[in-house]
């Protein structure tokens, strides 16, 4: 909401305003800290943790500052406050007008788990035309992408999980969103084949298993999504579901990826 809605402007409320972006980010973080404390008061054994969309930024040799800035904006601006009570140094001056005495104590708390939303990677370029001073570059031609144009890079899942543990410690992790869009349609027999999604899930799950073998405390995985649905600014144009939805008739058709996940659950092992 802060970056896409107030900084880049592709989601509601459609602003490209750095001050609004930083103000909303800080107040989201404050509200998270306040609510977490109140919920623990109401029920001390309640399990609470932040859910954050993390997308690794691939460093570009020609624009290292842009990569560091985008990583701070997209990833660390919402996690450093929880674990450290501070913001990344590269953003401190821009957030300073919104920070008041006592905020650090509100921001920081000990989460019971961390929820990771992860889909792709990003590349950054400095831009004087961008309200945030940096823009997200399109995926270079020739690389595998989803229907959304997002690069398919399963090794980034492993890198993200290992980097999180190194920076923030051994916190139980749940993958709270992971999946891909593909232009799925029923074939002549009425079946919906989605090999791109099936391979995507297989490869990203394999990366998660590798992270577990390297000591990451990965507890669970939620696929985005069960059903094709309304996708933010993209509306009904991007299909992420394991189940196809005919939006006119509301008919549901399980896709091949649905059966892949079904077999995964039944056999408790990654299908070939």
SSE order: HHEHHHHEEEHEHEEEH
Number of helices: 9
**For the CA atoms, what is the radius of gyration?**
20 Å
Round the mean pLDDT to the nearest integer and report it: 96
Quaternary structure: single chain
Give the strand order, joined by hyphens, for the main sheet.
1-2-5-6
Number of strands: 8
End-to-end Cα distance, whole Å, is: 38 Å
Anisotropy-based shape: globular
* Relative strand content: 5-15%
Give the structural class. Answer: alpha/beta
Overview of this protein structure:
- It is a single chain.
- The protein has 272 residues and is of the alpha/beta class.
- Helices cover 38% and strands 10% of the residues.
- The protein has a domain at 142-267.
- The chain is globular and about 65 Å long.
Characterize this entry briefly.
The longest helix is centred in the first third of the chain and has 25 residues, at 18-42. Helix 1 (2-8) runs antiparallel to helix 2 (18-42). The chain has nine helices and eight strands.
Show the helix and strand layout.
Layout: H1 2-8, H2 18-42, E1 51-53, H3 64-74, H4 80-84, H5 92-95, H6 103-107, E2 114-117, E3 124-126, E4 134-136, H7 155-168, E5 173-177, H8 195-213, E6 218-221, E7 243-245, E8 252-254, H9 256-267
Parallel strand pairs: 1-2, 2-5, 5-6
Antiparallel strand pairs: 3-4, 7-8
Helix pairs in contact: 1-2, 7-8, 8-9
């Amino acid at each position: 909401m802060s970056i896409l809605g107030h900084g880049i402007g592709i989601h509601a409320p459609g602003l490209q305003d750095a001050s609004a972006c930083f103000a909303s980010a800080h107040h989201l973080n404050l509200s998270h800290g306040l609510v977490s404390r109140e919920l623990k008061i109401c029920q001390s054994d309640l399990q609470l943790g932040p859910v954050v969309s993390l997308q690794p930024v691939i460093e570009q040799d020609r624009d290292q500052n842009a990569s560091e800035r985008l990583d701070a904006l997209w990833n660390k601006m919402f996690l450093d406050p929880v674990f450290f009570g501070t913001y990344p140094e590269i953003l401190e001056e821009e957030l300073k007008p919104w920070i008041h005495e006592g905020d650090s104590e509100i921001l920081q708390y000990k989460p019971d788990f961390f929820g990771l939303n992860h889909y792709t990677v990003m590349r950054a370029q400095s831009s004087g035309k961008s309200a945030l001073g940096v823009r997200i570059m399109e995926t270079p031609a020739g690389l595998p992408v989803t229907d959304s144009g997002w690069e398919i890079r399963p090794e980034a899942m492993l890198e993200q999980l290992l980097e999180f543990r190194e920076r923030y410690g051994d916190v139980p992790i749940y993958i709270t969103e992971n999946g891909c869009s593909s232009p799925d349609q029923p074939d002549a027999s009425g079946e919906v084949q989605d090999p791109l999604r099936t391979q995507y899930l297989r490869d990203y799950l394999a990366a998660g298993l590798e992270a577990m073998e390297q000591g990451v405390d990965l507890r669970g995985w939620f696929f985005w999504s069960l059903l094709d649905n309304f996708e933010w600014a993209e509306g009904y144009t991007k299909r992420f579901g394991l189940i196809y939805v005919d939006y006119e008739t509301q008919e549901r058709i399980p896709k091949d990826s649905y059966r892949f996940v079904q077999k995964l659950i039944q056999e408790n092992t990654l299908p070939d």
